[in-house]
Every structure is written in structure tokens, then in C-alpha cells.
Recover the amino acids of this structure.
């Protein structure tokens, strides 16, 4: 049994009141620091344990036994600071790899569209609603140089010869018996313009000589005119096959002959019978039913539109309208119809 006042020598490595030796306490702190995230280099814990080892509390000879030294709190904090100071430098952080943005899918370049073809020119109808423009724009006839009658008759005969030799319209030339130039006096007070020669006209060489011509003579007589007082002609000087209507190119080809005829004859008034003369001389596509009520003119010459005698033969109910047109024409001419006997 140990003496009462004897005491056991503290272990060399020191003991604590908690039952842990100082190295164990150091190891505990190191572990706590590890848990707190402090990192140590290899060998540091052992070194720290050595550094933290308390000095051996050797009992003084004869003295009372000394209590083992306890590691003080500052010492423990110093250990933690040392542990932190011994933390290895953070390994260099490699720069994050560059973020590679996925390239958008390459869209196929659409093939270049072919340039649009040049649009065809838009046909612009001439002013006045006509189908096309003819050689009809010119000075008023009364402004042309005054030629004596003999000269004009001579020029008119020359023109008649040109027409007789004309071969501009091959289909008509191959079918015609002869050309139909026109008939009537110079300076006629009235000039009647029809469509084209028919079978009888083609045979006789004179316009309006068939049944339609006889009706025309009656219409002129009702107006107080003798046929011989009126200059009578057509848009065409050759008969169209089958008495068809003149084609536009035929009317264009023959129009200069009509214009030169009128320039030499110098009529005072024009009566256009049917849609063909209003279309190709006045350049008007409007129907006769509308034009007949208008005050028309061609190069300064007043014009009255009315139905063709051949049309009146097919539609006799239109004769009343035609008579109204003639009365209108006479009124514009300053004439009065003769009283019926
Ligand atoms: S219609 Fe007139 S242009 Fe045509 S061939 Fe006869 S005269 Fe010549």
C-alpha cells in the first residue's frame, strides 16, 4: 500500500486532469482541425506533437510533488495557428476549360434565285379608248395649202393609180377583182365613209352599189342630197374574202390612202357608217350606239356616226335611230331636211 502522502510520479509524457496526455490532446486538436478543414503536410501532426509536448515537470528534489503542467488554451490556439500556417499552398487552380459553345448547325445556303425575267411591256391603250393609233393626227384640213381643183384632181388620179397597183394586203390582192377607190366630187359638202367593198363593189369598182348602196341613196335623198353630190369611200379599197370585217393590219395599211383622199377632196362634213370607220379613222373602240350621240370631229371636220346601211337591212328597227342621226347631222351642217312631197 502506498504511503498516504506518497504520490505517483507523473508520466514522462505528462498527464491531464481529463485523463488525456498532452500528445493525445494534440492529436485530438489536430483531428479537430482536420475536421474543421485544416490541411496538414505529411509529418506535421508528429512535428506538432513534438513541439506541443509540455516540458517535463520534474519534481524538485524533496519538494512536493508537482502537478503536471496542462496545456494552456493559448498554447492550443497557437497550435491551431501553426497548423494553419503549415497548410500547404493551395494547388494552382487550373483555369477552367473554355466553354466551347456548340456551333449552330450550318444551314445550307439556298441557291440564288434566278433573276426574274424582264416582265413583258404592258400594253397601254392610246388615249381616247382606241384600239391603236393610226396616221390620223395632223393639221386641220382647212390649214393645209390651198390647191386649185385641177391640181387636186390630177393628184387624186395619181392616188387612184397607186391604189390600183397596191399589193400591201396579199390575201385581199389575191381575191380582189379590182380596187374600189371612191367616187364623188371635190369639195363635197358631205363625205360618207363605209367599211369595205362587197361583192358588187368589187365587181363594179364603185362603193355602195349593192342593196346597201340603194338604201344609202334613199338616206341621202331624205337629207336632200343627190348621190352625185356626196363623196363616198371605204376604210379598205379591196374586198375582204367572204365580206368579213377588215383586219387591223389591213386597215393600217390602207389608211394612208383614205387620209390622202380626204386631204384632196376636202369635204365639209363626214358621216361614218358602222363601227369600222369610227374604229379606224377616229381611233375609237366605243360602239356606234354611243358615238352616234356625240359631236365628233376628224382633223377639224365635224363627224356624225351612224349605222351602216347593211346593218340597217339586217335590223330594220334601227332605221329610226339612223334617221335621228341624219337629222342631227343636218342640224350641225345648218341644213334642214326637205319636206316630204
Ligand atoms: S386594202 Fe388598201 S392597202 Fe390593202 S391591198 Fe387594197 S389598196 Fe392596198
Amino acid at each position: 500500500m502506498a504511503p498516504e502522502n506518497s504520490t505517483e510520479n507523473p508520466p514522462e509524457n505528462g498527464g491531464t486532469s481529463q485523463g488525456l496526455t498532452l500528445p493525445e490532446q494534440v492529436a485530438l486538436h489536430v483531428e479537430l482541425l482536420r475536421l474543421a478543414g485544416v490541411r496538414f503536410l505529411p509529418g506535421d501532426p508528429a512535428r506538432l506533437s513534438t513541439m506541443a509536448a509540455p516540458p517535463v515537470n520534474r519534481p524538485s528534489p524533496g519538494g512536493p510533488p508537482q502537478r503536471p503542467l496542462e496545456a494552456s488554451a493559448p498554447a492550443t490556439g497557437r497550435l491551431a495557428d501553426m497548423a494553419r500556417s503549415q497548410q500547404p499552398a493551395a494547388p494552382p487552380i487550373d483555369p477552367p476549360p473554355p466553354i466551347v459553345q456548340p456551333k449552330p448547325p450550318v444551314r445550307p445556303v439556298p441557291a440564288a434565285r434566278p433573276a426574274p425575267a424582264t416582265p413583258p411591256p404592258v400594253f397601254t391603250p392610246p388615249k381616247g379608248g382606241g384600239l391603236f393609233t393610226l396616221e390620223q393626227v395632223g393639221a386641220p384640213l382647212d390649214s393645209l395649202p390651198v390647191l386649185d381643183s385641177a391640181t387636186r384632181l390630177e393628184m387624186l388620179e395619181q392616188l387612184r393609180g397607186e391604189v390600183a397597183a397596191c399589193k400591201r394586203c396579199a390575201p385581199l390582192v389575191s381575191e380582189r377583182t379590182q380596187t374600189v377607190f371612191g367616187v364623188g366630187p371635190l369639195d363635197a359638202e358631205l363625205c360618207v365613209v363605209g367599211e369595205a367593198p362587197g361583192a358588187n363593189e368589187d365587181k363594179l369598182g364603185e362603193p355602195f352599189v349593192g342593196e346597201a348602196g340603194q338604201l344609202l341613196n334613199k338616206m341621202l335623198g331624205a337629207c336632200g342630197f343627190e348621190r352625185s353630190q356626196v363623196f363616198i369611200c371605204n376604210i379598205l379599197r379591196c374586198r375582204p374574202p367572204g365580206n368579213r370585217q377588215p383586219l387591223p393590219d389591213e386597215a393600217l395599211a390602207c389608211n394612208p390612202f383614205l387620209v390622202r383622199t380626204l386631204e384632196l377632196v376636202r369635204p365639209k362634213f363626214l358621216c361614218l357608217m358602222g363601227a369600222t370607220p369610227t374604229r379606224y379613222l377616229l381611233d375609237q373602240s366605243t360602239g356606234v350606239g354611243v358615238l352616234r350621240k356625240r359631236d365628233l370631229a376628224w382633223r377639224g371636220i365635224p363627224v356624225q356616226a351612224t349605222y351602216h346601211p347593211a346593218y340597217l337591212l339586217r335590223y330594220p328597227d334601227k332605221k329610226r335611230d339612223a334617221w335621228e342621226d341624219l337629222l342631227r347631222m343636218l342640224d350641225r351642217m345648218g341644213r334642214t331636211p326637205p319636206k316630204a312631197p
The two ends are 190 Å apart (CA to CA).
